[in-house]
Amino acid sequence: MDFVSDGLAYGRRFRCLNIVDDYTRECLAIEVDTSLPGLRVAQVLQRLAELRGLPQSITVDNGPEFAGRALDAWAYQVGVKLSFIRPGKPVENAYIESFNGKFRDECLNEHWFMSLRQAKSLIEEWRVEYNTERPHSALGYLTPEQFAQAHRQQRFLTLDSMSVPY
């Protein structure tokens, strides 16, 4: 999970909160707005938790949105460990940094956003394409969505076979 900043055509800045599953490579959310404080980060994570369940831990940098009380309180309440990288060591959160580079090159740098609404729409289109149409070599040339689906099916098969009495 990390932030990327960009600007609208008329100069107004906006931020993107990128949330990516390191295992499945799925981009779970890109929250776009002019301000994304810690409370908003916690709300986005809660929304994702209700849809997908909770991770054991979330790796973050030491930015104020991640190191503040709102995210800390949310993580404590739901039992998620916040793993902070060392200051100045983005390599410790390498996958999100790589994702951010692709996102900037393939989406942000390719568009001249006239409004925040347009930015949200085009960014969401890119996120869906990233998850559904782009195979990853690390995933056996499956898309993140295909890999996640296969992983969920395998997990359920494993759980089902464990519960069958012999």
From TrEMBL:
Residues 1-151 form the Integrase catalytic domain. It comes from plant metagenome. This is Mobile element protein. The lineage of its organism: unclassified sequences, metagenomes, organismal metagenomes. InterPro entries: Integrase_cat-core, RNaseH-like_sf, RNaseH_sf. GO terms for molecular function: nucleic acid binding. One of its GO terms (biological process) is DNA integration. It holds the Pfam family rve_3.
